[in-house]
Design brief:
This protein has 457 residues and is α/β, with parallel strands linked by helices. The chain starts with 8 loop residues before the first strand and ends in an 11-residue tail after the last strand.
């Protein structure tokens, strides 16, 4: 039905995921209209600027050129497109379930605009929703406000992205697979054609009904969080056994095709806007259905323990009065997002225990300050941070932290706790020492000598 048809696209929501999506689609030759109620997002896109912080975003906006524009007007966007992607927030409620209120608002506006438009239109839900939503209240809302029948004169698909902030564009262009839940085969085929033109790695495309796709999305992330928590448990086991090394164990075990290397590295807990909430949403879904869900609950509990584990490592090795520096506040490198950040959580725990804490992140100082307030001191540079304390804890694996010794001007004694094991000990001065959680008995390496008063290292 759509074999010789190049669809025009609209993207509703120009935030951290929507803006990169619109830019990528435009860069691949599609005519794209972005829709957002936030004036600065619309103005930024129309000025060729990135409305949010994300690597390569401005480059891809430039590549899209005249094919990408933005508006506040749903009618304009819908009437000038054939497929509408909805990528708006679905905030987590107190019960752990996702709220569809922003999705339903967007669907309502799209539906109203469709009443005055001829021809078929495909609506794609990209936001993560609870299983049963798309073929339930979302479908009902679309049919009610459009006056159309899903699967007949309007399509409805569920197609979430599997991406991470800081690598959104790369992940969109090179997904492990593409997931499409479809109301009907024609709608799914229309969407598949878009992905075939956009993805650079020819990924498998899995098409299925709407509820299976919804389950698959949160199941994938729940499985990954379980894998991360298992690796972190292994790290804690290894650090309590002389000669054990979690990197060696995970590298060997991950060679088994039943396990795999990806996301199988013991370090610290996961964070961010997806993994923690998807895991909890899966628990909520299972409990609503009367299904025993001890496994994701244990995953969540293990993850919460990781901050405490790192705090105890700091307290075990810090002398009374030692000042602590937390390096890394974003939940992962290359982003300023601090949602569920291990660094923020560690800084808060240390400050609450009475420690004097200085923090530093290449991108996330400002966003972290909105959360931590005046509990901590914010260093403006890495050098300033390192001079502010005697104990350093690395909580985000930024590349800038690999050779910390190069940033230290003095020869003061300094202890570095590096659960990511990113620090090159060869870069350290003689008075500096690094501890690697995940290696036997908190394995340590020193620049040259151990300092007096630290013999128990």
């Amino acid at each position: 039905m759509f074999e010789n048809f190049l669809p025009r696209l609209s993207v509703v929501g120009l935030g951290k995921l929507g803006a990169p999506m619109a830019a990528v689609l435009g860069s691949k030759g599609f005519e794209v209209v972005g829709v957002d109620l936030e004036p600065r997002h619309v103005e930024a896109i129309n000025a060729g600027k990135a409305p949010v912080l994300e690597p390569q975003l401005e480059q891809y906006i430039a590549a899209a050129g005249h094919r990408l524009r933005a508006t506040h007007d749903y009618r304009d966007a819908v009437h000038n497109s054939d497929i509408s992607f909805i990528i708006v927030p679905t905030p987590t409620g107190a019960d752990g379930a996702f709220s569809n209120r922003f999705v339903l608002s967007a669907v309502t506006e799209i539906g109203k605009a469709l009443r005055a438009k001829d021809g078929f239109h495909n609506v794609v839900i990209t936001s993560t929703v609870m299983p049963g939503s798309t073929n339930g209240e979302i479908r009902k809302t679309l049919e009610e406000h459009s006056g159309r029948k899903v699967g007949v004169d309007v399509g409805l698909c569920y197609s979430p992205e599997f991406i991470a902030l800081g690598s959104v564009i790369h992940d969109m262009l090179n997904p492990d697979f593409v997931l499409i839940g479809e109301s009907d085969p024609d709608s799914g085929a229309m969407l598949e054609r878009v992905y075939r033109a956009v993805c650079e790695n020819a990924p498998p495309i899995r098409r299925m009904n709407l509820v299976n796709a919804e389950i698959c999305k949160i199941a994938v992330n729940t499985f990954i969080t379980t894998k991360i928590s298992f690796a972190n448990m292994l790290a804690e086991v290894c650090e309590r056994l002389d000669g054990a090394d979690v990197d060696v164990v995970c590298a060997a075990a991950g060679t088994d095709s039943r396990i795999g290397r990806k996301y199988f590295r013991g370090a610290i807990g996961y964070g961010g806007p997806c993994f923690p909430r998807d895991n909890r949403a899966f628990v909520t879904l299972a409990e609503r259905l009367g299904v025993v869900c001890d496994l994701p609950k244990a995953t969540d509990k293990t993850n919460d323990h990781q901050v405490t584990r790192l705090r105890l490592a700091v307290e075990q090795h810090a002398k009374p009065g030692d000042r602590v520096v937390v390096l890394g506040l974003s939940y992962k490198p290359e982003t300023n997002v601090v949602e569920q950040s291990q660094g923020v959580a560690l800084a808060r725990q240390l400050a609450d225990s009475g420690r004097f804490v200085t923090v530093y992140d290449p991108l996330a100082n400002q966003t972290a300050e909105a959360v931590l307030g005046d509990q901590v001191v914010y260093a403006e540079t890495l050098e300033e941070a390192l001079e502010a304390g005697e104990v350093i804890a690395i909580t985000t694996a930024w590349k800038q932290f690999a050779k910390l010794g190069n940033e230290i001007l003095s020869d003061k004694p300094l202890l570095i706790i590096d659960p990511w094991r990113v620090v090159d000990p060869k870069s350290l001065k003689s008075a500096m020492q690094v501890i690697y959680p995940g290696r036997g008995s908190l394995s340590t390496e020193a620049g040259i000598t151990k300092q007096a008063g630290r013999e128990n290292w």
